[in-house]
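User: My collaborator sent over this chain with a note saying "see what the structure looks like." That's all I know about it. Can you take a look?
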Amino acid sequence: MGTEIKRKERVGLLDELRGFAIICMVVYHALYDLNFIFGVKVPVFFDDWFDIVQSVFAGLFIFISGTVCRYSRSNLKRGVLCFFFGMILTFVTPFFNAYTIYFGILHFLGIAMMIFGLCEKLLDYLPATVGIIVFGILFAMTYNVRNGFIGIGGLFEWELWDKLYDVGVLFPFGFYNSTFVTLDYFPLLPWLFLFLAGSYFGVWAKNGSLPKFFYPVHIKWLATVGRYTIWIYMLHQPIIYLIFSLIFR
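Assistant: Without extra context I'll predict from the sequence alone. Here is the result:
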């Protein structure tokens, strides 16, 4: 009975972590706008450790997004809607910035949700533990696609064909050259594998297999933020731009 109840519950800690991750993303974009649009230099933005932290929280957000797919009745519909919002940003951002968003987090999540929706039954042939391990390894193996190789840097590397990066239209897969510029970029390689690893973690979450402290809400406002991340992502840039315009212009 206890497990059946848990299957209907949201996982409070995951909502809170997703809320924290989207707040970090908003802060990152605010610092970006200050530096590159309004000419206010924030030195920490250029530190190597800051890029690492940004990648960690973006990865956390993607992993949890894969987890909550297990709670959706139609990931195909959610994916189409998310991708549509991403395309709205693609058309709108040039009005606020010299650059645009070609394959940002919303484009990526939309495609990832659709892929999961189409392949869910096939993916379910793998036990959750095996799925997390397999797709975790694939994520690590493809993390350096942007650097021209697959493998674990410093251990073993296989260089990829240079022509892949010159085609131009393969940027959704992580193949791009120096002429490609975008404000936000999350290609399918490697991030799709992290999303799918999260979907297997979602099996544990939905079945009530996680430790008990995962399920209750600990910080209500943060969990609320985590439930409305897509709207926050859609609206935060125009709001930030308006506030900074009022302050600096």
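A starting point for your reply to your collaborator: Residues 12-36 form the longest helix (25 residues).
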